[in-house]
Amino acid sequence: MVTRIVDLRSDTVTKPTEAMRAAMASAEVDDDVLGNDPTAFRLEAEMAKTMGKEAALFVPSGTMGNLISVLVHCDVRGSEVILGDNCHIYIYENGGIATIGGVHPRPVKNNDDGTMDIDLIEAAIRDPRGELLYPTTKLICLENTHANSGGRCLSVEYTDRVGDLAKRHGLKLHIDGARIFNASVALGVPVNRLVQAADSVSVCLSKGIGAPVGSVIVGSKNFIAKARRLRKTLGGGMRQIGILCAAALVALQENIGKLENDHKKARFLADGLRELKGLRVNSLAGETNIVFIDIEDGMRTGAEKIRKYLEERGILVMQESSSRLRVVLHHQISASDVQYALSCFQQAVKGVENEMGD
Questions:
Q1: pLDDT tens digits along 290-328
Q2: Within this chain, do residues 278 and 337 fall inside the same structural domain, yes or no?
Q3: Does residue 70 or residue 355 have the better pLDDT?
Q4: Which of 165, 224, 278, 354 is 20 to 30 A off residue 158, Cα-Cα?
Q5: Is the pTM of this model over 0.85?
């Protein structure tokens, strides 16, 4: 019988802390659809200030935040957005920008570090003289940290270059900043500077910083006014959301400072996993809080078998493919949990080797 659970599937699995629950219970609330929830006002004002933008809007999820942002910038059906071929918006958001917004995605190859080559981005911008034949490019999207690249950070210099490119061509820049605070901490760059070049940013509250629900999008006052209308259209207008925003305010106050420790735990785990024969971990894994583990061909087994072996011992990980596992660290994973997880990985590899020898 499993007596210890270490949940490394994602940083979305955190539970509300006692401080969050207390804040939720005592939150001052009103009807946010009518524009009167004071705790929502506090959170939105705090996020706008933190991100260096004029205004902000609470939304139920990061997927909705990205969808709203793309639709505000691409306000004519048949518009086109340039984005990475391995980014969250393109792969994991159910094709919403196309199915709901009539926006055409134009993917550009993501490099291993989550960037796209600047010249490839520029080459993907449609020539306005071909508007009779082609979609009209309106927007460029970046993702920071880049989840499918193992939580890699986009530098401020790179983001600025993409922002300059967008401006030269009359385009907008949106950043899917689901884990932007992780990037800020890892790079040692204030978060408002990291997104200075962006016209809009979506920030997840329920990933790295551990709030139970929601995201916030930030941008100009005009952008947020349009976003508020779209939120209502998409069914994201909720009533007494101050209960949720109260927990997010606690997360902002208490958990950003814990992110560096999450990164240290990820590096410790990655370093230990690299020592195990048959597993391959990228040399830059642990830059933030995500680690991908590839099972080498010589193991003659797959990710599914190792995942089940770990699960039987209380270690929960995400299976990405037949040969890849993902682990994500968060503030409710202790150093002892990491040690235990590493020992279970060691046992899993040893167990598989022994089975192969039988």
A1: 999 999 987 777 899 999 999 999 999 999 999 999 999
A2: yes
A3: 70
A4: 224
A5: yes
pLDDT digits (tens, 9 = 90+) for 94-108: 999 999 999 999 999
Q: Residue count of the chain, please give it.
A: 358
- The radius of gyration of the chain from alpha carbons, rounded to an integer in Å, stands at 21
Kindly give, in sequence order, each residue whose CB lies less than 8 Å from that of residue 101, ignoring residues fewer than 6 positions away. Answer: 67, 70, 71, 74, 77
Residue 10 belongs to some domain of the structure? no
Total count of domains within the chain: 2
Residue 104 in 3-state DSSP? Answer: strand
Query: Measured between alpha carbons, how far is 325 from 358 in angstroms, rounded to an integer?
Result: 25
Q: How far is CA 124 from CA 119, 170, 208, in A?
A: 9, 14, 32
Within 10 A of 176 (CB to CB), how many other CB atoms are there? 31
Structure tokens at 86: 């391995």
**What are the E-state strand segments in the chain?**
6-7, 55-59, 79-84, 104-108, 136-143, 172-177, 200-204, 215-219, 279-281, 290-295, 315-316, 318-321, 324-328
CB contact at 8 A, 179 and 214: no
